[in-house]
Fold this protein.
Amino acid sequence: MEPDVTRTYQKFETLWKVISALGRAAGKIQWDQQVMMPKQGGDMCAEELAALEEIHHERMVDNELWRILCDLRHAASEGFLDSMQSANVRLALRDADRARVIPVSLASDIARQACIGEQVWEEAKGRNDFAMFAPHLAKMIKLKRAYARYLAADLKDLYTPLLQDYEPDFTAAEVTKLLSDLREQLTPLVERVISMPQPDCSVLKKVYNADGLHRLSQRVISLMGFAGGEDSRLDVSAHPFCTGTLKDVRMTTRFVPEDGLEAFYSTLHEAGHGLYERNLPYDQAGMPVASAVSLGVHESQSRFWEVLVGKSRSFLRYIFPELQNTFPDMLANENSDSLYRAFNAAQLTPIRVNADPLTYNLHIIVRVDLEPLLISGDLEVLALPEAWNRRFKELFGFTPSDDAHGSLQDTHWSGGSFGYFGTYTLGNELSCQLYEACHAAYPDLENHIAAGDLMPARHWLREHIHRHGSLYDAKTLIKKATGKPLGCEALMRFFKKRYEDVYQTSL
Amino acid sequence: MEPDVTRTYQKFETLWKVISALGRAAGKIQWDQQVMMPKQGGDMCAEELAALEEIHHERMVDNELWRILCDLRHAASEGFLDSMQSANVRLALRDADRARVIPVSLASDIARQACIGEQVWEEAKGRNDFAMFAPHLAKMIKLKRAYARYLAADLKDLYTPLLQDYEPDFTAAEVTKLLSDLREQLTPLVERVISMPQPDCSVLKKVYNADGLHRLSQRVISLMGFAGGEDSRLDVSAHPFCTGTLKDVRMTTRFVPEDGLEAFYSTLHEAGHGLYERNLPYDQAGMPVASAVSLGVHESQSRFWEVLVGKSRSFLRYIFPELQNTFPDMLANENSDSLYRAFNAAQLTPIRVNADPLTYNLHIIVRVDLEPLLISGDLEVLALPEAWNRRFKELFGFTPSDDAHGSLQDTHWSGGSFGYFGTYTLGNELSCQLYEACHAAYPDLENHIAAGDLMPARHWLREHIHRHGSLYDAKTLIKKATGKPLGCEALMRFFKKRYEDVYQTSL
């Protein structure tokens, strides 16, 4: 690099690493809120997150940073920057550009309302009291609508700028198209599978003790290559999630009696997210390229480990003895085959997070159908429960018993995450494309998995996804890793193969 | 208030609450570092704390804030502000004034080096390797010397500005005078007590299981009036501490075999700090007045509960059956009297945190003698271990076995806390003055304590110390609460009475 460019780039690094550290600090405080905070600490916590958001925003829109980035964009176009550096400049410009159109007061209002709204939602859901939550949802929608208006290229499409917070390279139209393509093929398959004689799933309804589940969760995390208290933590929270990055990755799970063995799969899921964060390029720590490219790609990692690996015959063959040793009484009459069928059995449930892989995406369709209407104002908050139940019935054939099993079930909207749900389906589709590519690279992949060796899969994902961070945009990364653009074909092939095997039939 | 003043004051509140939230955020991240963080997360954590410190500092020195504070000082002098408001303005001006002379890069360098230095110290102490720690200590001393030079009224006294970070209303000369007054009376008393036949302390050397200690710790916290997961937490860390404030107070303890029953007293100590924070004026949350007035006053709270209440005959009479129920085998041959003697027995130990109340302050004198020399440069870092051992021998009559039991034992200097140690002695002295005043207000105080009723003491402290926050400066508060300025008389009276009772002799 030219000496001048070197100095300018170093200045960019210094400024950006502070922004990045503020983001990580906020992440730790949100983790704390979910996992550690005494109950009455919520108001102070909301002030802390709002302050961090205000300053994060202020730093992001700083004029000095903007000037430096414009200089560096020029330097990149002249070939003075390497590919990682160019990507850092491109990504920083993208984020700064988005932030510069948002008033700082709006950004901190959203952060504060997210923190408060999540707490109210938690309580409202527990009481099945939509009316209690409604004013907070309305307030958040109003804030996010204002936010979208600042960003929208087309004021008639306020949904795209929101979803691009999570999936920067996709538009609302593209996500909707992916979902409707999938729906067309998925609905008849779901109908066929659901109408078949169902496997015995009573093993899933038993009550397993938390200690055993915790040991199994720790075990699966270490199988996936985490180094325990060196680089990660596993804790308990009301809703499982993963946060942190690089050498400090934090996953949570929950142990509640009605979840049966779900904690085990929840841990596999979150550890899939965690592995992505763990293996991002550490030499770029604090720079934009050392972050996940999008939530859809993130979700492809969690589903890869949870569904493609975790619920496969091969993995269950390996892990079954450990499951049975941990719960000898509960699993006395089971074997790896019976567990495989139970874990994969399709059923129509009102709750998204309880859904099997096959019907899961129908839940996403309900949400992605409704949320653009909430944002545009075509659907009033108070009319949401009824609209939800109607749309749900069209897809599932029955109406949820109450709002806690309907429109009140997810935390996302309380925290302002509109446009997030679609990324789950993108992730499901991508996980299957990745698995096919990984399998092509390692034809004996399943033998490794059946022997408890998860390293080939870990290695392939690290090589083709993790280590690149955000060097490529999502579409380019997907094409490079899997050889094709994102679509529903691999997912449908996976469903057909898995469900033919589970139901011992031809679909 | 005049409408203009009202608006100006509101603007001050808005600005200050962000500063305050940033401080709390940093506190949570430091707590996380000690209690929760995966080992390899240290470098990212240091960046987060440095970023928060940089921005905290930047906000503190903001010109708009300064102008507003100057306007409000004028409004206060004209009588437009109430006493809480005036105190907030006075305290904010004091803090902003100090911050405005410190370059932001120096402030964030200190924060970063503190985080790194503490990690190196931890390891160096474990290995008894002073040379490993020395360059980090030297770096921190250089930074703090620079810091002190910016603040010093007199460049020959760089120690006063450092200790005023912890004890704003005292000078180095005043602290030194308090310590030498105390030393004069204390040394002959220690000599007399140490030369006497010692009580049997073998009960303290036994190994108690962590579960029992944890239950007892939780029990004592709830006796003191904490509401469990509602307003507080108790966790485990390498070194016990207390952080957080108001409705989110976090205490830690440690359960290590060689500590015997120490965890129980460590919890009482930290909960004393915690109760102060818990009872600060919540309606002023986020404003300067809602904070502890000084570290000396803070320490008076912890010692009040640990030593004056916790190690008293009355409290031990109450708690002994619970201790014995928890550890029936270990305490089979004990009674409340034998425990009382063991817990209070005086002995000369090399380690400050293991010291009994009587000899504790001699440890402080070693440190307060040495640290001004480190700051002035008259004592080189590499000469510290020898200087420590020499001074220690003068006061204790023997030399520590190694640096881990000598100059490497405390974490304070690694984190840049020079001028902190003196506040322990101020706290010890004040705790006795407060106890005398509280006892005068509740003549049957000890009967309450003997019945497990700690509410009179809690109530009195809340009324005379906690609820005022920083409304008064430390000297005024001490005078109002105890009727006299700070001195060693009450502490010496306490020692005489307690040790005459423990050793059943006349001193």
